[in-house]
């Protein structure tokens, strides 16, 4: 929703300002310039990107218009799931998780937290790293493995944002290409009246305008949006990491450490978590 509102404000203010200066909107409508700029940008992106990168980038661009981001409720649910896991480990031992992580969709433990169960990436991350612990790998080594996993996943997730950012960097230059082609066409009409030449030159300059506007008005911001989405997801994994690294500690202490990994604007208070834990215990006993 924010993306749509931002685009509306962006184009609305530009058009309003242009009209305030008594500009003619028909001059800005230059389909040929759009074909040159965006066609060249698409071609350059295809040349520079492997097939899997193109696919992941197209999928991620859709998220710019649909991604809601993490909320306090998301992190509360995550902390409760982690607390549930840690309590089970505390009472029954780490081997008690073997059946739970074998198929989380059928696990009673995971099914008590449907919002988190729907997050396949987070569940997979929990499953994979707890599975290593169940196998008896040293906790220090598990911690190192988690760091490697997070680093690799972060770099992979950032590839679409970086690719779009490079396209944004190229758009002003591609706008100039469109403008130069417009000037070339104008020179072929040098014998035409000033009115015709003026229109042709104006159309050529629109190419530069569109290239700069596209780069800094929405393609660049889309790359930034995707970057923020990646960082938002990393917080979820970092919370899980902290809790898993402290799986042999007191569950309350481990959850408090994990809670502090959450940004202050989204972080549930200690009191809120305690109340939710009490409700969870009451529901479980029933």
TrEMBL record:
Residues 124-232 form the MotA/TolQ/ExbB proton channel domain. The chain crosses the membrane at residues 7-29, 35-54, 170-190, 196-219. Signal peptide: none annotated. It is found in: Cell inner membrane. InterPro entries: Flag_MotA_CS, Flagellar_motor_stator_MotA, MotA-like, MotA_ExbB_proton_chnl, MotA_N. It is a multi-pass membrane protein. This is Chemotaxis protein. It comes from uncultured Desulfobacterium sp.
